[in-house]
Amino acid sequence: MARENASVLRPGDWVTYDDSDHQVVALSGTSVRLRTQDGSESVILASYLMASPGFSVTGAEPLPALEPFGLLQTLPEPALAAAREWERHVVEVETGLPPGAEPGTTPRPEYDPVARSVVDRATTKATELGVSLRTVQGKRSRYSQQGVWGLVDQRTVRMSEATGRADARLVAAVREAIDAETRTSTGTRSRLIRRVIKMVEATHGVGVVPLPSKNTFYRLVDSLSNGRHTFGSAVTRRQTANRPQGPFTPTFAARPGEQVQIDSTPLDVMVVLDSGLTARADLTIAVDVATRTICAAVLRPMGTKAVDASLLLARMLVPEPMRPGWSKSLRMAASRMPHRRLLDVDTRMDQAAAKPVIVPDTVVIDGGKVFISETFIRACNRLGVSVQRARPRTPTDKAIVEATFSAINTLFCQHVAAYTGPNVSRRGERVEAHAAWTIPELQDLLDEWLLVGWQMRPHDSLRDPYRSQKPVSPNDKYTSLVAASGYLPLVLRGEDYLELLPVAWRVVNDYGIRIDHRTYDCADLGPWRRQHSGIAAKRGLWEVHYDPYDLSQVFVRTQHGWITVPWIQLPLINAPFADFTWQHARCLAAEAGLDDTNEEAVARLLDKLLSRAEHGPDKRTVRVLDRTRAAVVIPAPADEPEPDTPPTIQPLAPVAPFGVFDAHVEAERWL
Among residues 168, 348, 538, 579, which one has the fewest Cβ atoms lying within 10 Å of its Cβ? Predict the structure, then answer.
């Protein structure tokens, strides 16, 4: 039998605690003494006992739930009035008097608790209201458990929800269709409604699920798609879907290098490639969270490769050299950074630019193939850098670098010629015609802007610890954190930088070293020609390191150190070139009928290619060539001969038709 008052715990009661039964022996203040069936006793705090999982009082009814007062205020006034009226009838059945009765009021004879039982009173109330006894008893039960909320007509509650009276199967189909719109192009509501109808009919059959009217259907779709941008911007819709469900936790770092975030994105500027055509370049940056310093930024034309991430890491760990034409105010010696102490450690700081060298403890990367490659992981392991991967489809794990990309577009890219804008809707006309910068030239502009427009510019997320309203620059924040944490970076030496470059194993012959039909030679190779390197695992080959984005020289490891070996055809080239530029020059040589293994012929074509890139592409010639490739010769219809004139058959002349443009073949040719 249920206890009279379930909200009171008394000595002698049995409770369930810690998956076993205990009897309450005594109560003393906030402590409860319990005894198990085998006689063992324990003392526990009452607050801990009642908050423990699975706690319950044996034989006690559950405590009644409080009324949802907030939801009651959202009900329509007629529905709330009807619930209040039922409350008056139920209370009269329970107590004999309606709620709010004056003191001394006598209950009506048919509801007198002394003379009539509760069943008799409920039967009388059912007859009075013209409802069944089951209805009255159900109202009494719900009122005892939920209060006035239990007396509310639930049909009214469903109508006040977003889906109204719509069938649950239809609502599920609409939700599924809205979820499917996340990754697709933006459409209209009518398209989604059509898909929902087809989905419902395919699942449940034609005419089984009732469909609302057109206007009601539109309102249902709008209510379920609220806040998801289903019929708005596709970019905003995808970004909204990628937001994590949990609370956002700001990324925090207390010292330089504690966390560095790395990522890549296409730059919103059209550049002139080595082929003379225009395209967007890929920008890969590394951002220090504590100081917001952009430790390194590298532009590449054809998608970032695995070696790019390694070179980015190496570039972070060496001082930024001053370039010809840069202002003396950009020198580290002219800044407020601790230059003299760093100069005592590394003499290269004397000619370094005003950007700190930050050695990362942890780098945060995404799941791109660039960063999870063996090249990058092994480079980080060698330098003692911990690699932390961001969760899939969770850009907030590296929110700092994502926000930095937006800042670069706003502060730098929009002021550069051939700026494309963040999306097509903000792009101007004939942007390609304004492309003026090659990638090396744009890289120099970006490096100089990082010193002036970023490292020395106050950042809203960096604050002076003594004047919280004043933002400080990344260089100033680095200076203050260095003084607080005693941070002293040990930068990479030149030999360490070479270690991160790709390796090729080659023989040192009389003519030098041959790599991909390029010959490298110098006088320093004299003692090592035709000699065994001493590495039996590589059959005596020599270890040669090269930069795939500057093939003008290679680096050979010998027993006495590194040897820098230049390319023998370097005087024919007027600019640095990369591996993909060399491969394209070889393709041009093969198309011209030349020997693509003859490095002198390829070098001359390469020089012409780089010279043409300086002046930009001939747009008119490119368009004419494209139209010519895409043209298909369609023979003109011959005139019909006269009926009385016998047709004359002319001998066919040899025809050289235009080739049909094949996109796949052209793509392979370019690659």
Answer: 168
